[in-house]
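Re: the 80-residue chain
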Amino acid sequence: MTQLPHANSSARWIRAVAGESPLDQNTIFACGLALGHSLRKMAAEPKVILGRDTRESGPWIAATLAAGLRETERAWRARA
């Protein structure tokens, strides 16, 4: 199993207003796709733990990112 570097849970990788670029649905979905493809190159069955904070935008951001990850899984399974 490939070990990823330990992530700092307080790291902020995108700072923006939720719903506006670059924190809009299309960009978040694309981030999920990119993350999924990157992880798939590292492990045959990668696992993701997705956390969020308590802001109002948290649920839709998490759901959109997860949707991108799920789409990556579907694409990889279709290739098999």
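Residues 25-79 form one domain.
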